[in-house]
UniProtKB/TrEMBL annotation:
<dbReference type="InterPro" id="IPR044135">
    <property type="entry name" value="Met-tRNA-FMT_C"/>
</dbReference>
<dbReference type="InterPro" id="IPR011034">
    <property type="entry name" value="Formyl_transferase-like_C_sf"/>
</dbReference>
<dbReference type="InterPro" id="IPR036477">
    <property type="entry name" value="Formyl_transf_N_sf"/>
</dbReference>
<dbReference type="InterPro" id="IPR005794">
    <property type="entry name" value="Fmt"/>
</dbReference>
<dbReference type="GO" id="GO:0004479">
    <property type="term" value="F:methionyl-tRNA formyltransferase activity"/>
</dbReference>
<dbReference type="InterPro" id="IPR005793">
    <property type="entry name" value="Formyl_trans_C"/>
</dbReference>
<feature type="domain" description="Formyl transferase C-terminal">
    <location>
        <begin position="201"/>
        <end position="297"/>
    </location>
</feature>
<comment type="similarity">
    <text>Belongs to the Fmt family.</text>
</comment>
<keyword id="KW-0648">Protein biosynthesis</keyword>
<keyword id="KW-0808">Transferase</keyword>
<comment type="function">
    <text>Attaches a formyl group to the free amino group of methionyl-tRNA(fMet). The formyl group appears to play a dual role in the initiator identity of N-formylmethionyl-tRNA by promoting its recognition by IF2 and preventing the misappropriation of this tRNA by the elongation apparatus.</text>
</comment>
<feature type="domain" description="Formyl transferase N-terminal">
    <location>
        <begin position="4"/>
        <end position="176"/>
    </location>
</feature>
<dbReference type="InterPro" id="IPR002376">
    <property type="entry name" value="Formyl_transf_N"/>
</dbReference>
<dbReference type="Pfam" id="PF00551">
    <property type="entry name" value="Formyl_trans_N"/>
</dbReference>
<dbReference type="GO" id="GO:0005829">
    <property type="term" value="C:cytosol"/>
</dbReference>
<dbReference type="Pfam" id="PF02911">
    <property type="entry name" value="Formyl_trans_C"/>
</dbReference>
<dbReference type="InterPro" id="IPR041711">
    <property type="entry name" value="Met-tRNA-FMT_N"/>
</dbReference>
Length: 306
C-alpha cells in the first residue's frame, strides 16, 4: 500500500501490530515511541525502536511529542496508527494527519475507556471483551469507531492469555479495516457516551489481596494483575507473590487468609471458597511451584495471611 503511515507504540505487543502492517505491505514511514530508559547501569531502547532501527525506519522518541511536530509533519503521512503508546497525543500532533490517527484499543468501547482495559475486564469478571479500532481524539478513547470484534473470555484466561488473544484478533481486524477506511468505504460510528465506563492505571496497591473478599473476586485479581504488578499477600512480614492460582468454591467457617494443605500444595480461605496457588514467590526467594514451596515452608500451614 502506497499510503505513508506513522506507527505510534512502545512495547512488544505494539511490535506485533507494527510487524503485521509491515509484512502486509503497508508503508511505515516512521515510528513514534517512548524515549530510552535507564535500566540499572544500561540504557534500554523500546521494542518498537529496536524493530524500526533493524528496518532502517525513521524513529521519533521524544519526551514530549510537541518537540517533534515539525519533523513529523515533514514525513507527509496522511494517517497514523497507534497501539500501546501509553500517552495522550496533543491536538497539534493529531492535526498533522488528514485521515487521523487510528487507535487499537483492547476493549469493546465504550466499555473500559482508559489505560488498563484488559485488567479491568478480568477484574470485573467480564465474559466478553474485544478489540476496537477508533479515531484518536484528545479525550481518552472517545473517538468514532471504525470497527470492532468480540473475543470471549474463558474462566481460565489470565492477562497474558487474553492479551495474546486480543492482539491476534486485533492485527487481523486492523489489516482488514485499514484499506477500507483509506478508500472511504467505512463510515465511522459515534460512541454512546452514556454507556461509557472507565479504567485507571494499575498500581502496586491494587495488587494487594484482601482475603475477606469473595474467592471469585480474589481469583479475578490474580488473573488480571500478573505478571505485573503481581498479586501479593504477607506471611511473617514478608511479601508472598501469588502469580497464578485455581479457584475452589465452597462454604466454610475458616478465618479469611487461613492456609491449609491441599493436593500436595496449599490453599487459602476467602469468602465462599479457596484460592489454590500454583506458582508463588516469597520475598527474597526464587519463583516456585506450590508443591515445592510447601516442602520448604511447612510452617505456613495454619497461619493467617494478611
Amino acid at each position: 500500500m502506497s499510503e505513508k503511515i506513522i506507527f505510534i507504540g512502545t512495547p512488544d505487543f505494539a511490535v506485533f501490530y507494527l510487524n503485521a502492517l509491515f509484512e502486509a505491505g503497508f508503508k511505515i514511514a516512521a515510528v513514534l515511541t517512548n524515549p530510552d530508559r535507564k535500566v540499572g547501569k544500561s540504557i534500554e531502547e523500546t521494542p518498537v525502536k529496536k524493530w524500526a532501527k533493524d528496518q532502517n525506519i525513521k524513529v521519533f522518541d521524544p519526551v514530549q511529542v510537541k518537540d517533534v511536530l515539525d519533523e513529523t509533519g515533514q514525513i507527509g503521512a496522511r494517517v497514523g496508527i497507534m497501539a500501546y503508546y501509553g500517552k495522550i497525543l496533543p491536538k497539534e500532533f493529531l492535526a498533522l494527519f488528514p485521515r487521523g490517527v487510528i487507535n487499537v484499543h483492547h476493549s469493546l468501547l465504550p466499555r473500559w475507556r482508559g489505560p488498563a482495559p484488559i485488567q479491568a475486564s478480568l477484574l470485573a469478571g467480564d465474559k466478553m471483551t474485544g478489540v476496537t479500532l477508533l479515531a484518536t481524539e484528545e479525550k481518552v478513547d472517545s473517538g468514532d469507531i471504525l470497527a470492532r470484534r468480540e473475543v470471549e473470555i474463558s474462566d481460565s484466561d489470565n492477562y497474558i492469555d487474553l492479551e495474546k488473544k486480543l492482539t491476534l484478533i486485533g492485527a487481523s481486524l486492523l489489516l482488514q479495516t485499514m484499506p477500507k477506511y483509506l478508500s472511504g468505504e467505512i463510515r465511522p460510528e459515534k460512541q454512546d457516551d452514556s454507556k461509557a465506563s472507565y479504567c485507571r492505571r494499575i498500581s502496586t496497591e491494587d495488587a494487594k489481596i484482601d482475603w475477606e473478599k469473595p474467592a471469585q473476586v480474589v481469583h479475578n485479581q490474580i488473573r488480571a494483575l500478573n505478571p505485573n504488578p503481581g498479586t501479593y499477600t504477607f506471611w511473617n512480614n514478608k511479601r508472598l507473590l501469588i502469580l497464578s492460582a485455581r479457584l475452589e468454591t465452597g462454604e466454610h467457617k475458616l478465618k479469611p487468609g487461613t492456609v491449609l494443605l491441599s493436593d500436595g500444595g496449599f490453599k487459602i480461605a476467602a469468602e465462599g471458597g479457596f484460592i489454590k496457588p500454583l506458582i508463588v514467590k516469597l520475598e527474597g526467594k526464587k519463583e516456585t511451584g506450590a508443591r515445592d514451596f510447601i516442602l520448604g515452608n511447612r510452617n505456613i500451614v495454619g497461619s493467617v495471611l494478611n
